[in-house]
């Protein structure tokens, strides 16, 4: 009996070790939706509307899990990233519309990442924003030129952990209403004037560049070359990886809104700029809380700027039917367009906080141009073979896409008034 128990324990240990071979891509893209854009939209949501918009994080995360798993599904089965698949299977007009708008989305994303890291540096050292943004861009380029996905994944997972710990600390200090928190998570609410913030939160969680990036990181492993058994196993483990990574992101995004609701909304403070957060936190909870917030913002900006630049390189390389490769000129051009375009936009901004908020709204408006083509690809037997979406899975994806389109239409109508 002891012998059987030993075998069982040994098998369990081996299974656990095998699982960790597959963990990484989900957390790699998780940092993209706990980036400075999320900090801005979540702090705005919590400070203006209390706990009422927590449901948006829940809905966005459910949409995110469905869409990101589908993007990874494409990469695992075909060995192509989303950009490559679009170039191979779509007509030129759709390819140009999808990938051209995706490049703009990558630039908008990088704007938020670089500016967020610069704001964090400014809070800690007083360094001017433009200098901090330039430093962050150079850091991103250096990380990508290291040419090692696995090392990048470990760095990113470390950053995600540090950001999470920062908000555990902030919430531990705050007087949180957990009844309102649980209600807010599951009860849809549309307060007057909240729609732009709702769409900002949605765009900051379900980010176009992350959809491209997930398929890129997955396809780099080329599981499709190892046969059906490996593909099926990878699909199973990948979903667990995605679920775990996105779940961590949901908790951190929720923590941002909860902290803002408990500290700012409760005291009638509407946050209009991120440095205002540390100025407010320090007298209430002590200097340590302000430093922790600034450090978390810096880590979020640095790590997510890496993923934004990589996504830009992936999208641009895919236009030429190539995977991301830092040694390839097309990948380098895409990376450069993303980082330099973001730096140029930052120079033109008069209000960094509003600039980040509206960049996230822009991401939300681009989402249908990424999600709908993705569904078309993964539902096609020509592309996916026997792994094409089944009717039930396709229906879930189309409902997800229609929800995003509906919210975008509501925002456009609201803005037109």
TrEMBL record:
GO terms for biological process: iron ion transmembrane transport. GO terms for molecular function: cadmium ion transmembrane transporter activity; manganese ion transmembrane transporter activity; symporter activity. It is a multi-pass membrane protein. Its main location: membrane. It is found in: Membrane. Keywords: Membrane, Symport, Transmembrane, Transmembrane helix, Transport. This is Manganese transport protein. It comes from Trichlorobacter thiogenes.
């Amino acid at each position: 009996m002891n012998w059987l128990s030993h075998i069982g324990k040994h098998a369990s240990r081996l299974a656990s070790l095998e699982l960790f071979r597959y963990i990484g891509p989900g957390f790699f893209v998780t940092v993209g939706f706990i980036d400075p854009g999320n900090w801005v939209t979540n702090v705005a949501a919590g400070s203006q509307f209390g706990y009422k918009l927590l449901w948006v994080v829940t809905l966005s995360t459910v949409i995110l899990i469905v869409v990101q798993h589908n993007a990874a599904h494409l990469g695992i089965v075909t060995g192509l990233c989303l950009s490559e698949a679009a170039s191979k299977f779509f007509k030129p007009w759709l390819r140009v519309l999808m990938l051209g708008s995706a490049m703009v989305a990558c630039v908008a994303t990088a704007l938020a990442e670089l500016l967020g890291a610069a704001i964090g540096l400014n809070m800690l050292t007083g360094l001017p924003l433009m200098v901090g943004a330039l430093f962050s861009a150079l850091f991103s380029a250096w990380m990508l030129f290291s040419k090692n996905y696995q090392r990048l994944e470990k760095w990113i997972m470390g950053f995600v952990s540090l950001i999470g710990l920062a908000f555990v600390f902030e919430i531990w200090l705050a007087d949180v209403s957990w009844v309102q928190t649980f209600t807010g998570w599951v009860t849809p609410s549309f307060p007057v004037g909240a729609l732009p913030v709702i769409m900002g939160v949605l765009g900051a969680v379900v980010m176009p560049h992350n959809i491209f990036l997930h398929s890129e990181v997955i396809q780099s492993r080329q599981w499709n070359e190892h046969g059906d058994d490996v593909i099926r196993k990878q699909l199973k483990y990948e979903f667990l990886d995605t679920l775990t990574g996105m779940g961590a992101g949901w908790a951190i995004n929720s923590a941002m809104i909860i902290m803002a609701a408990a500290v700012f909304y409760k005291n009638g403070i509407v946050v209009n700029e991120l440095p205002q957060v540390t100025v407010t936190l320090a007298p209430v909870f002590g200097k340590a809380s302000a430093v922790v917030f600034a450090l978390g913002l810096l880590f979020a900006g640095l790590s997510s700027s890496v993923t934004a630049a990589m996504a830009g390189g992936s999208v641009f390389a895919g236009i030429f039917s190539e995977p991301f490769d830092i040694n390839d000129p097309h990948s380098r051009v895409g990376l450069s367009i993303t980082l330099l375009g973001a730096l140029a936009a930052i120079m033109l901004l008069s209000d960094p906080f509003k600039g980040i908020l509206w960049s996230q709204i822009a991401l939300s408006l681009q989402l249908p141009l990424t999600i709908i083509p993705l569904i078309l690809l993964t539902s096609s037997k020509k592309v996916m073979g026997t792994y094409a979406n089944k009717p039930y899975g396709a229906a879930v994806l189309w409902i997800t896409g229609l929800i995003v389109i509906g919210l975008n239409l509501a925002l456009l109508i609201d803005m037109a008034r």
